[in-house]
Design brief:
Order of helices and strands: HEHEHEHEHEHEHEHEH
Strand content: 15-25%
Number of helices: 9
Helix content: 40-55%
Amino acid sequence: MSNNFFENIHENPIIAAISDVNNLDDAISSPCKIVFLLTGDILNIEEIVGILRKNNKLVYIHVDLIGGLSKDTTAMKYIFKNVKPDGIITTKSNLIKAAKGLGIFTIQRLFLLDSLSLSSGINSIRTIRPDMVEILPGIMPKVIREIGEKTNIPVVAGGLIRDKSDVIESLNAGAIGISTSNKDVWYM
């Protein structure tokens, strides 16, 4: 599976995050080249990915949020063979390992609540070595910088990005991109 993530993120660092299928047309018409798909189920995921790809969007599916799929290697094989996204997003280390074994581009999503989650997140990244990390909330410039420096893995900031200053601060801290469901930010 070819992957142009890094090429496209440099052209436009804003990633459209879709948590509702009703926002599909908005993402398609947006200038965002990359879409994080945070919705769907086993019955519609192939169709949604197909529509986005037909409209020249790179699609990364958050497998933890896709209804009807188990969270194991068999699900990764199904996704790889049938859904054919450009990559996957997950919070689960075992799915990162399984996807990497299949040659799927991997994004490890980390929810950072406190110092312990930051420390364990950095350890997980160092061990699993995903292709990229998405941290939430994405409005923590010091933490973005720290994760990038300690892991040498590209970071995307997501969650609570509301305006241009949030985008600029996250990018200046070292994030290579911003994922957001805020449609106003898609057009910055």
